[in-house]
Amino acid sequence: MAAYDNQHYVPVRYFALFKPQSRTICLVLRKNGKFIPNASISGQSSSHRFYGSDALEAAITGFESACGDLLEEFAAMDDLGSMNSKQFYSLLRWIGFQRARTEAARSMDRPMWETMYRVLGEHAIVEGRPALERPPDRDSQLAGMMDSLEHSRFLSRLTPYLLSNRTNRPLIFGDAPVVYFNSAFRHVVDRGVLGTQSPGLQIFAPIGNNKAIALFDPDYYRVRSSSDGEVRIRDLHDVAALNALQIHSAAHAVYFSDTEFAPYVRDLWEQQRGRLRTHSATILSYMESVGEDQEREVNVFFEPVVPYDLNLSFVSRQRR
């Protein structure tokens, strides 16, 4: 196999944060809850030529390397008191990029691109022009990945926290490990509430069995933490809630370090299985008048919030 044939959308080095110096990982499949005890990490969260060219994969790998160093720095921290501005803004870039690069993200955006090129094709036929050929999914996704790096700066308005898991249950991660959520506006169904500038945004990203990064909109949430941004989690319900988000956000599987936790993860999956949804953007279509006896189709696309009622003991809503 050529060096870049098997292309990962969750880096192997990220897996090492949860199971260092190992070639295997435990997983539970999202579609049916099947437990696989010793899955090869090299075959996880990857696909043949997922991004395409060797040159592109090499560039992504270079970015991954710098991000791997960064995440190891955060995983070694006891709190965020020592975090500097370079680390913070690099973290935001990783958050945006990692979220945009996964198969779940590609699946989410696919209906948008299909609808967009259908409408453009219809307009081309009416105007006697050749229809635009829809580019491959990976090309469309690449545009989103590049946008994520540019838009990550808007996340700086959020307050970061280091979640420290002090329970006897691990934090798990899925093949879409960076999760955007919005407890304040999750019931809004006619527009997106997960954009980088959306009021009420929350972000969760595990960086080890006992560590996670979280960001909250300070205008909407009050978080109980130390003065240095550490949140010590001692409530198993909090760990279960964070893990449930990983199950909902994953495309294919959630991962964990040890077989002893298989019954726990399987139980979490059983609790959520009836609520799991396919990853697909919401499309709202309507006809808009543009003149006498003329209408045009308008399509609004957005990513829905995962169907989960998130409650964390250390977070309360700000009154507005």
TrEMBL record:
It holds the Pfam family DUF4238. InterPro entries: DUF4238. This is DUF4238 domain-containing protein.
